[in-house]
Amino acid sequence: YELKKLEPFAEDGSFQELWQESKSFMKMQLAKHIRSKIGFNLNPDSMFDVQIKRMHEYKRQLLNVLHTITIYNRIKKNPQGDFVPRTKIFAGKAAPGYFVSKSIIKLINSVAEKVNNDPEVNKYLNAFFLPNYSVSLAEKIIPATELSEQISTAGYEASGTGNMKFMLNGALTIGTMDGANVEMHEEVGSENIFIFGLSAEEVIEMKNSGYNPSKFYESDAELREVLDMINNDYFNPDEKSIFQHLFNDLVTYGDNYLLLADYRSYVDTQDKVDELYRNRFEWTKKSILNTARSGKFSSDRTISQYAEQIWKIKPISIELD
């Protein structure tokens, strides 16, 4: 693959500088677009942490929200702490009658309102749900992304392509061993991707052995605090119990997509993301390697392989008048 030719430049200081300038430019372009179209103010000096995809419980946007609240709580408890500034960007559409997904969008917006308007917190953390998600918006978001969230419950994702687009554009991925993440992990190497959580086999085993999410709720103080805030109207004091069903789905009614089982692994892995982001040389090196090793996911390669192995056809030359 031609992109492999980038690999020797991954540790080149002058090339890294150009790479960082390009990413910074795309971040500023996105911030400018969002400010003009929606009125949100994105901090281009923060880490752009992005989850854009169809809203569905198995894709676990709610797990990302739990992490957002976790960061919020850590900052509130230690406002003078040294936190890596982060901008959480969500976008996606829910099916018209999908009540739970609509509720998760509502929760994202409620958490974002609290976070973005707290002067103790908003210098380190911001969150935004971008409305009217479209290909045109994705074309602006993906090149500006630094961390790509691919966090579906292992065993549920057939194989999306969004994660590949982020990889091609130099984003680092945090994800489970699910869908195309598995192949991306093979291509980029375990040291250049953030993998967390249960495997597909472990998900099945945990469900078959009688998964009890309340055990995770009771044993993890940080998780319990986050869930209690959702349940006790912290983010929506004017709309009593509006998110109580989300709490019940997770703690009482089985947590079908194992958010609580994966929460601690996810949060601890996000801490490793912060640690790496502080090291600009290593982060940029891994960003370059993600792009350099994404050639396998080219449509040209895919079609060529299909032609050879499935369709059993060979290309021919034609002359065009």
The structural domain count equals: 1
Over all CA atoms, what is the radius of gyration? 21 Å
CA-based shape = globular
Write out the strand line-up for the largest beta sheet, numbering strands in chain order: 3-2-1-4-5-6
Rounded mean pLDDT is 97
For the secondary structure, the number of strands is 6
Keywords:
321 residues; 6-stranded parallel beta sheet; Rossmann fold; alpha/beta
Task: Describe the protein's architecture and organization.
The two termini are 31 Å apart. Helix 3 links the parallel strand 2 and strand 3 (125-130). The chain has a single domain, classed as 3-Layer(aba) Sandwich (Rossmann fold). It is 50% helix and 9% strand. It has helices at residues 13-37, 61-77, 99-116, 135-141, 162-168, 181-188, 200-208, 213-219, 221-231, 244-251, 259-277, 280-292, 299-309, and strands at 47-52, 86-91, 125-130, 147-150, 172-175, 194-195.
Task: Briefly summarize what is shown.
The chain is α/β, with parallel strands linked by helices.
